[in-house]
């Protein structure tokens, strides 16, 4: 895609000065960038979809190991 629409991690080192020249450095542009970064961080680390078969299976496996340890203490 166009250089102005790429994310920072997708820009090559040689393209960095040209990419920086296309960025909006105004207060409104910086505020929009901070909001976008916060939204991305929130979606990745805070607003994580929970549940599903993996969580239930890990809970069941933990219970089985704990129960096995209680019943066979000599091991």
UniProtKB/TrEMBL annotation:
One of the record's GO cellular component terms: mitochondrial membrane
Pfam family of the protein (one): WRW
- UniProt KW keywords: ATP synthesis, CF(0), Hydrogen ion transport, Ion transport, Membrane, Mitochondrion, Transport
- Asked whether the keyword Membrane is assigned, the reply is yes
Instruction: Give the highest taxon in the source lineage.
Output: Eukaryota
State a single Gene Ontology molecular function.
proton-transporting ATP synthase activity, rotational mechanism
One of the GO biological process terms = proton motive force-driven mitochondrial ATP synthesis
Q: Could you confirm whether the keyword Membrane appears in this record? A: yes
Q: Write out the annotated subcellular location.
A: Mitochondrion membrane
Where exactly are the transmembrane stretches of this chain? none
Which family does this protein fall into?
Belongs to the ATPase F chain family.
Q: What is this protein called?
A: ATPK synthase
**Protein's organism:** Centropus unirufus
Q: Which gene encodes it?
A: Atp5j2_1
């Amino acid at each position: 895609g166009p250089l102005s629409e790429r994310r920072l991690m997708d820009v090559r080192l040689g393209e960095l000065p040209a990419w920086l020249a296309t960025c909006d450095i105004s207060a409104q542009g910086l505020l929009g960038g901070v909001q976008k970064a916060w939204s991305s961080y929130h979606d990745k680390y805070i607003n994580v979809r929970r549940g599903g078969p993996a969580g239930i299976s890990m809970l069941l496996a933990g219970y089985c190991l704990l129960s096995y340890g209680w019943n066979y203490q000599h091991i």
